[in-house]
Amino acid sequence: MSISKVSVVGLGYIGLPTAAVFASRKIEVIGIDVNQHCVDTINRGQIHIVEPDLDMVVHAAVTEGYLRASTIPEPADAFLIAVPTPFKEGFKPDLSYIKSASEAIAPVLKAGDLVILESTSPVGATEQMAAWLAEARPDLSFPQQAGEGSDIRVAHCPERVLPGHVLRELVQNDRVIGGMTERCSLAARALYKTFVEGECVLTTARTAEMCKLTENSFRDVNIAFANELSIICEELKVDVWELIQLANRHPRVNILQPGPGVGGHCIAVDPWFIVDSAPEQARIIRTAREVNDSKPAWVIDKLHAAIGEHLSKNPGKTAKDVVVACFGLAFKPDIDDLRESPALEIAKEVSKRHAGKVIVVEPNIKALPSALEAAELCSVSQAIERADILLLLVDHKPFKEVPVQALQGRQIVDTRGIWRV
Ligand code: SAJ
Asked: Is the N end or the C end of the chain the one with fewer CB atoms within 10 Å?
């Protein structure tokens, strides 16, 4: 099968870099998105998201004529669907974006086309997508009806790139390719091989779906272990970071780092898809989610205890006189992404509940989100100078560089273990 035109549906954090990398290999790419602003931005050779070097790659691809964006689907040889799969009420997966993407491309499908679902999805979602496509196009045959002889090939190929390193990981990571039939897998592998230097490993669509969920659940469970240790160590008066460093000297132990909770739109979401599919069996996975989700409230309790301690040392002062500085809002270090960030959740709660002044330091943004309008955005040094209590939430580089002397004798709540004086 020869692919001369690829359509990427959904031009977000995964779709846009994928579209740009195909285009950089001189394949004609049409990117489809429902957001007119995003389409216009890309057609100007600019980007609407933050990812290192992506602006250059998109600019080159658009200027050289290999990448263009539109809100209206058009015929292509391969369609990659990279739309969000959030959860709705009761942590149930919301497949409505996949449904609308399927309905959008169905009218332009032709025999011989390949449709790949890249979005992280619960097990069975690729088969569901194929069912929606078949419903819209009874004139074409699909793998669930015609097996290897189908007009349309369908596969699941989950993305597994780390935000901040997307362009490198897209090319270098191994890729799991789950076709609905073997021919579907082979067609998808031929497509990815145009730019993937890692191995493209073939499996079934259901295994590929479960594989992606498993990867992020593995990380969530292991972070929950570290978070639970940090809560236990607080009770036992043991330094959890020293403990983990020591335990990790064992050749078969590799504990992750505790923090204020788990953020982003992947690790805190995907395990719920497994829990939803097997609620009786997924006991550790569910508990890990609960442990990680409860961490922000635990951090706020620690802050309240620190405020109480400050007041007991400063008779005559009330909570109104205590200045709290929150260091970091992003969901992980050295990025500007605040989505699903436990640090942001904590800062919002502190700014809502604390009677005194709240200062925020976030070197990666220029203005505070509206939910934090009562707080004040400050530089690192201003915050250290003005605050009575320093609440460290994200291990950004500028925070790690604060000299120890500046922190000596200060009251600190450190959720990341970088300001242990
Ligand atoms: N975190 C900790 N302690 C740790 C490691 C991470 O508290 O030791 C926290 C971070 O602070 C952050 C959250 O976990 O709040 C997630 O950060 P992350 O860097 O581990 O992962 P993401 O969400 O940026 O990207 C993950 C990656 N998955 C895995 O590493 C298994 C990425 O490869 C996936 O492509 C991505 O999810 C996705 O799109 O699913």
From this structure: C
For residue 264, report the distance from its CA to the centre of ligand 1, in Å: 7
Tens-place pLDDT, residues 21-50: 999 999 999 999 999 999 999 999 999 988
CATH T-level assignment (fold) for domain 216-414: Rossmann fold (3.40.50)
Nearest CA to ligand 1 atom 38: 266
Which of 166, 219, 293 should be mutated for ligand 1, with most atoms under 8 A from CB? 219
Q: For residue range 316-373, what is the model confidence (pLDDT) as tens digits? A: 999 999 999 999 999 999 988 898 999 999 999 999 999 999 999 999 999 999 999 9
Separation CA 185–CA 156 (nearest Å) = 9
Is 412 in a helix, a strand, or coil? strand
State pTM to two decimals.
Answer: 0.95
Tell me, using a 6 A CB cutoff, whether residue 394 lines ligand 1: no
In ligand 1, the atom with minimum distance to the C-alpha of 266 is 40
Show me where the domains of the chain are located. Answer: 5-198, 216-414
- Domain 5-198 and domain 216-414 have a common topology: yes
The region that residue 70 occupies, defined by phi over 0 for left and psi between -120 and 50 for alpha, beta otherwise, is: beta
CB distance 162 to 333 below 8 Å:
no
Spatial separation of the C-alpha atoms in residues 101 and 264, rounded to whole Å: 23
Residues with catalytic annotation? Answer: 212, 266
Question: How much distance in Å is there from the Cα of 254 to the middle of ligand 1?
Answer: 16
Which protein residue's CA is at the shortest distance from atom 10 of ligand 1? 332
Instruction: Identify the three-state secondary structure at position 17.
Output: helix
Domain 5-198: which CATH class?
alpha beta
Ligand 1 centre to CA of 382 (Å) is: 31
